[in-house]
Specification:
heterodimer, A: MetI-like fold, B: alpha+beta, globular
Chain lengths: 312, 549
């Protein structure tokens, strides 16, 4: 097991280096630079700015210098926000994004598993069709539509919940978490339904029922563990996706998160900020994939045995 | 029982959600009115709060609360009014200005604001290594441009001197009638020398001197909080010389990028004022809450550039034909719909004393005649030119309208092409376009802020257009005359050349649009959408925010 984790960690190094290198050259290949603006920057000012940020040097020299900084743990100054380092901006945006991602994941798992299990218990009845239709809608409705609709209904018409903000007013985290979680809840519902249907037809479920166990115990103790394996495998990438994909929700609800920095950095050609956020997200995705693989191994005895054999 | 387990889970979740929804409580506007704090929608997160580095409107809004120049503006008329300087004299030739600084002017730590502070700050603003994009605001001062370009190393040769603690003398290279206006631009604001030096060299970018707790300013407010993408809080500065007149206890600047979110926040009572108004909401506010809607002319022009290096567009008759064939009234009435004013000149109306020449009109007949004369009768043989704009729904609608007008009136086909903002800027700067959209906002209320763009090889010209007579009028004759009427006459003559040669097609003049809560007093419509923070106050009203459906 330890060997498995170590080898996966070692594999991550070339992956991240590839991400760094590809991003570094791709952002510089994109037309337009960080200091282009509607009002042309005077040439002497542009020269001064490029000198400040090493952009006047040959590109390979910039690349090596960047790798050097990275090894020292420095992500450099943001071009867009000259008084801030990229580390500082990530640190400022991460807490809100991570919390939003956490609540959204909770919404997604809560709603998704509930709907999926209900559907699987009564296949092809209305209890199946209704949640699955809702899930289909959930997958199809983008957050930039769902968010404003929720705000209009709960924020402006009913006046139950704040229309924007994060941690300023009671209840202002509910609508963004619902908006962001909804799409993932829909995926999870479909995964949970599929997994449960498969497990419920297994012999050991029939055995459990045959020995007279109450249905609740059969579902909760025997069926859920196997039936939710596909959901668990999805959780790692889902959380990384929730973290990186929160740009739209953060914009609609005026949340001071990392998603906004990430997307705006690309629009602004803020090279260091693009690099910093990309590396950060890539690391997160690698870590969460590893984590969800480990949980999957723990949940599925067959996989556990396989690793048990190979790691010995 | 067994089967309702998921149902119970679901019910529990719903309960938790509805419990948490105990109502929004006191809104920002209600709390703000109680505490005297204005909640201001401020567009984007400011890049910086260093007046010698920043370039944007959101930055300007905050900095003008924290710092003050020699003069300020009357928010109704935009006339210069005394600020740090209580009075000034100008020599008969318009070249030497003497400013008498008020003795009561203080930094927010209690230090006096002196003439030396201005000399030191202007030197810093001009340091080449600082990369100040607005350094040119100081170029009217003798020697300033040479110092900025590194051609002059000795700052004592630049025309600014402290005669004593409270007297500043400035020598200009030409008489500059708008010079006083420049002194209310943040590029000419003073900064607190000991604070800057505590955190780095004067020419160093991005030192932490602008953080709350560090920032020392001389404006009506001091910086007390800065949470990224959330809020910038300023509170009343007790050391400010005119503190008695400052009615607000503070301003919370909230960076809200999404215009629809901003409008929803206004409706929910989270903001007293917005930066702008979504186009599709204008009609609703006009009908239901006209008292909250402020739409006023703005010192800016929306226009198209024509690349005169293109063989077809090199012919002035073709360019003029394209300019005359545009029905600008239809454009603002049916497409932009934000109260914009059709543009028949490049300089916007409202500049006191200046009348733009009447050299442009909607005249499809003349347009057809010119196009035929250029060799394309009814558009025959006219190549398919491309119209480039940066990706945005608004720009696209305008481009489609122009495409149809040109087809209808001239029989020419135009292809539409859009690019991401930075790619678009790059294409225009490199001259890789045929027709491209553009916008220009004046830095100060004077035609020069619009006309000096079009001189040969001007950094913002980007059309390849060059006319020696135009250059002479703008760069030589207009800047040398000290007679205001004559100067405007020369500039109008230059603008006539520009419009007749038509390297650009002005389309409309911008309007500024904002929502203002009825409790806010002292925010006046003006050409620059300028808010004088010390003139704003909050009136405790019972009027609730508009919860429109």
């Amino acid at each position: 097991m330890i060997r498995f984790v170590l080898s996966r960690l070692l594999q991550a190094v070339p992956v991240l280096l590839l991400v760094v290198t590809a991003t570094f050259f791709l952002v510089r290949l994109a037309p337009g630079g960080p200091f282009d603006a509607e009002r042309a920057v005077p040439p002497e000012v542009l020269r001064a700015l490029e000198a400040t940020y090493r952009l006047d040097r040959p590109i390979w020299e910039q690349y090596l210098a960047y790798l050097g900084d990275l090894l020292r743990g420095e992500l450099g100054p943001s071009y867009r926000y000259p008084g801030r380092s990229v580390e500082e901006l990530i640190a400022a945006g991460l807490p809100a994004s991570a919390e939003l991602g956490f609540w959204a994941l909770l919404v997604a798992v809560g709603l998704g598993v509930a709907a999926g299990v209900v559907a699987a218990l009564r296949p092809n009845s209305w209890q199946d069709h209704l949640p699955m239709a809702a899930a289909m809608v959930g997958i199809c409705v983008p957050s930039f539509l769902l968010g404003p609709i929720l705000v209009l209904v709960f924020g402006i018409w009913l006046e139950w919940l704040p229309v924007s903000g994060w941690g300023d007013l009671p209840g202002d985290k509910i609508l963004p978490s619902l908006t962001l979680g909804a799409g993932y809840a829909a995926y999870i519902a479909r995964l949970a339904r599929g997994g449960m249907l498969e497990v419920l037809s297994e012999d050991y479920i029939r055995t459990a029922r045959a020995k007279g166990l109450p249905e609740a115990v059969v579902i909760a103790k025997h069926a859920l563990r196997g039936g939710l394996a596909p959901v668990v495998a999805f959780l790692g990438p889902a959380f990384a996706g929730l973290l990186t994909g929160s740009f739209v929700v953060e914009t609609i609800f005026q949340i001071p998160g990392l998603g906004r920095f990430f997307v705006q950095a690309a629009f602004n050609r803020d090279y260091t900020m693009i690099m910093g956020t990309t590396i950060f997200y890539a690391t997160l995705i690698v870590a969460f994939n590893l984590l969800s693989d480990l949980v999957a191994v723990w949940l599925n005895p067959r996989l556990r045995d396989a690793f048990g054999e190979s790691s010995r | 029982m067994p089967k309702d387990l998921p149902v119970r889970l679901f019910a529990a979740l719903l309960c938790a959600l509805s419990l948490a929804a105990c109502g929004p409580g006191e809104s920002n506007v209600e709390r703000g009115n109680r505490e005297g704090v204005l909640h201001f929608g401020n567009g984007t997160e400011p890049q910086e709060l260093d007046p010698h580095i920043v370039t944007g409107v959101p930055e300007h809004n905050i900095i003008s609360a924290l710092l003050e120049g020699l003069v300020a503006k009357d928010p109704r008329t935009l006339e210069p009014v005394p600020a740090v300087a209580e009075r000034w004299e100008v020599s008969a030739d318009g070249l030497t200005w003497r400013f008498h600084l008020r003795e009561a002017a203080r930094w927010s730590n209690g230090d006096p604001v002196t003439a030396h502070d201005f000399v030191w700050s202007w030197r810093r603003a001009l340091l080449p290594e600082l990369g100040n994009q607005y350094a040119y605001m100081l170029f009217p001062i003798a020697g300033a441009e040479a110092f900025h370009r590194g051609e002059l190393k000795d700052f004592s040769q630049v025309g600014v001197k402290a005669l004593d603690e409270h007297t500043l003398e400035v020598k200009l290279r030409h008489p500059t009638p708008y010079f006083l206006q420049l002194l209310d631009h943040y590029a000419t604001f003073p900064v607190h020398r000991p604070t800057i030096e505590r955190f780095g060299a004067p020419g160093e970018r991005g030192t932490p001197w602008t953080r709350p707790g560090h920032y020392v300013g001389n404006g009506p407010f001091v910086l007390v909080g800065w949470r990224l993408n959330k809020v910038i809080e300023v509170r009343k500065n007790p050391y400010y010389w005119d503190a008695d007149r400052v009615a607000l206890q503070g301003v919370d600047f909230r960076p809200v990028e999404n215009v629809s979110t901003e409008e929803r926040m206004f409706r929910a009572g989270q903001l007293h004022m917005t930066q702008t108004v979504p186009i599709d909401k204008l009609a609703w506010y006009r009908a239901h809450h006209p008292e909250m809607l402020q739409v006023s002319p703005y010192l800016g022009t929306y226009y198209y550039r024509l690349n005169v290096r293109h063989p077809v567009l090199a012919d002035a008759r073709v360019r003029r034909a394209l300019a005359l064939a545009v029905d600008r009234k239809a454009l603002v009435d049916h497409v932009t719909r934000g109260g914009e004013v059709p543009a028949f000149s490049f300089t916007p109306p409202g500049i006191p004393g200046y009348r733009p020449p009447a050299a442009l009109r909607y005249d499809p007949q003349e347009a057809r005649r010119l196009l035929a004369e250029a060799g394309y009768p009814e558009g025959q043989g006219f190549p398919r030119l491309s119209l480039l704009y940066n990706t945005s729904e608004g720009h696209q609608k305008i481009a489609v309208a122009l495409q149809q007008m040109w087809k209808r009136e001239l029989g020419v086909e135009i292809a539409l092409d859009n690019q991401d903002w930075k790619v678009f800027l790059n294409s225009v700067a490199l001259g890789q376009y045929e027709i491209a959209r553009a916008g220009w906002i004046g830095d100060y209320v004077d035609p020069m802020s619009f006309l000096d763009l079009w001189v040969t090889d001007g950094g913002n010209n980007q059309t390849g257009w060059s006319n020696p007579h135009y250059d002479e009028l703008v760069l030589q004759r207009a800047v040398r005359t000290s007679d205001a009427t004559e100067r405007f006459r020369l500039l109008a003559a230059a603008e006539r050349i520009l419009l007749e040669e038509a390297p650009i097609i002005p389309l409309y003049f911008y309007t500024s649009k904002r929502l203002v809560h009825p409790s806010v007093v002292g925010v006046y419509p003006n050409l620059l959408a300028y808010v004088s923070w010390k003139d704003v106050r909050l009136r405790a009203t019972v009027s609730s925010p508009p919860t429109g459906r």
